[in-house]
What does this fold into?
Amino acid sequence: MSFTLEEIHPHDIAAVLDQEGIAVRAGHLCAMPLVTQVLGVQGVCRASFAAYTTTADVDALCTALQKVQKVFA
It folds into this structure.
């Protein structure tokens, strides 16, 4: 799942999530023309989910994203 948070650079999002123990990819993710020209953003973050991802993992991501928003508010 690729996402952005308004006005927060994807690398900043990834850095805060990393401090919370959550790994995401950030940047153009091999889709630079789509990301910059079509979506009109500097980059995106991507969280990957698998069969072993738990609801606790998703909750942790949501909580950490709320922290990102507070840090950059």
About this structure: The two ends are 23 Å apart (CA to CA). Residues 25 and 46 are 5 Å apart (CA to CA).
